[in-house]
Amino acid sequence: MLTPRIQLALDASAGPASVALFVDGQLVQARRIDRKGSAELLAPTVSELLAVERMHARELTDIIVGAGPGSFTGLRVAAALAKGLARGAGATLHAAPSLPMIAAAEDGCAAASYLNVLDALRGEWFVQRSTKHADGRWTVDGTVERLPVDVVRTRATALGALIVGPPVMPEQQPDARSALLIGTQVVSLDTWEPDYGRLAEAQVQWEATHARALPAS
Amino acid sequence: MRVLGIETSCDETSASVLRGTGNDVTLESLVILSQDVHRIFGGVVPEIASRQHLTAVLPVIDQALGDAGVTFTDLDAIAVTHAPGLVGALLVGVAVAKGLSMTTGVPLVGVHHLEGHLFATSLEHPAAVPPFVALLVSGGHTMLLDVPAWGRYEMLGRTRDDAAGEAFDKAAKLLGLPYPGGRHLEALALHGDPARNRFTRPMLRRDQKPGDADYYDVSFSGLKTAVMLAAKASANLEIDGRHIARGFQDALTETLAEKVARAVRATGRTSVVLGGGVACNLSLISAIQERVGMRVAVHAPSPRIATDNAAMIARAGLFHAERGAWAQLDLVATSSADIPGMILR
């Protein structure tokens, strides 16, 4: 008898954080954390979900973490927890783009093209396109961009795509429940880091002043 | 017990393995990765520090385990700094530690960074155990404590503005020295004439009495201003800088030494323990030894142990683990908190 794959997905790229537990790709438990400091509640929430399924964290075979963009702190806490879990369990670490988790988490959404957006502040949105096909498959189209809000709206009209995400509907959030639908990528436990979507402000200013990239540490 | 320590409170990513019982401990490994990038900015950039911790923390932990020749199954506790410090940086260590603890079953201990510094010196000096008077001097803190026993810390005095290390770095910057400037200023002061720039010893008056609010407290912002004025008045800072550095260092170390001597007299302790990044400043150590006399032992850490490191976190973690003071998964990272067991005066 084959050992089941026990897959844990985490995302804390937006205000609320989310956790989902899968067995051989089937969702068995999911939780969204809407409270302040949601990223810091990820670990107890993971523990609760495992306890409900009478599983131990050491049984985890795959850890999938939301890769961003979004909240610097949220992304980092989820990534650090995911790395600790994967290292301790000997599990494989996967990254999943956070934005496409918005549309894919909408139960019963139509086969269509979606522009998934998150507030990037300063009048901009992070945006990434995903498509739900007629057979129910999802594909992620292109990379994350940071664009002025009106540009995203114009693009949505041109593509015939639907804009989804908290700036247009607060309850539409990236959700770990949909992590396996949108495709994941195996990443290095040691060197991987999320796509924060922005450099640190001090780095932006330094690079603007010196007209070159910040030297590697 | 064998403890893995993890420290990510500022700009050092560190892990360490330590084994022992009570005060009988053996350091099995210590890995410290310092983030050089902050030199460019002249100070630690919290967001950059936090990002670098995330990519450094597992390799550093793996190296510490490898150097000690152990795996997670050999550990009895995972101790992690959870306060005080840069929250974004602390969160990385705390979240990784939680993940490791959940999957390996090794229980978690949350350690206060400053309590770690109190334990640090005992890793190199077995006699640096309570009771003692402690002077914690780092870039973020300056505290004078009476330590009758591990876990019991009575606050005698603290800085009212800049920490000693912060004052060193700011004075160094005013003198055009590279960041972090403390050790550059100390090196420069070696060549200075102590009589050329004699600055007022801050918050030190002959008529101060025990019980006075400023009897043990210190303040370094005025000293920093004095350095600024002296630097501005200099026609040739390249020459005068060494004298100003000497004047600054003498004023700071003599002030701290006198406050420590007062604490020793008041408590009757026969041992002084220094901790924190400034604790390995040789002028400070000799100034304190001179003021307290040869019948009082002064214990100072080496630069490696004085800086932020995970060995001290593992050592403090061992103390709490032996008492079953385990942390739960809701352990919070926080930028400020009193040392557990602290009695404020």
Describe this protein with a few key phrases:
heterodimer, A: 217 residues, alpha/beta, Nucleotidyltransferase, domain 5, 2 domains, 6-stranded mixed β-sheet, 4-stranded mixed β-sheet, 10 strands, 25% helix, B: 345 residues, 5-stranded mixed β-sheet, globular
Strand order of the largest sheet of chain B: 10-9-6-7-8-11
Number of helices of chain B: 11
Number of strands of chain B: 11
Helix amount of chain B: 40-55%
Summarize this, please?
Chain A is an alpha/beta fold.
What does this structure look like?
- The complex is a heterodimer of chains A (217) and B (345).
- With 217 residues, chain A is of the alpha/beta class.
- Chain A is 25% helix and 30% strand.
- Chain A has helices at 42-52, 72-89, 100-104, 149-159, 201-210, and strands spanning 6-11, 17-23, 26-33, 62-66, 92-96, 113-121, 124-132, 138-148, 162-164, 185-186.
- Chain A has a six-stranded mixed sheet, with helices on one face. In chain A, strands 8-7-6-9 form a four-stranded mixed sheet.
- In chain A, a hairpin with a 5-residue loop joins β7 and β8.
- Chain A is globular and about 55 Å long.
- The model of chain A has no long low-confidence stretch (mean pLDDT 94).
- With 345 residues, chain B is of the alpha/beta class.
- Chain B has two domains: 2-118 and 306-343, Nucleotidyltransferase, domain 5 (2-Layer Sandwich), CATH 3.30.420; 131-300, 2-Layer Sandwich (Nucleotidyltransferase, domain 5), CATH 3.30.420.
- Chain B has eleven helices and eleven strands.
- Chain B is globular.
- Chain A binds chain B through residues 39-44, 46-47, 56-58, 60, 72-73, 76-89, 91, 189-193, 196, 200-203, 206, 214-217, and chain B through 35-37, 40-41, 45, 47-48, 50-52, 54-55, 57-59, 61-62, 72, 87-88, 91-105, 328-330, 332-333.
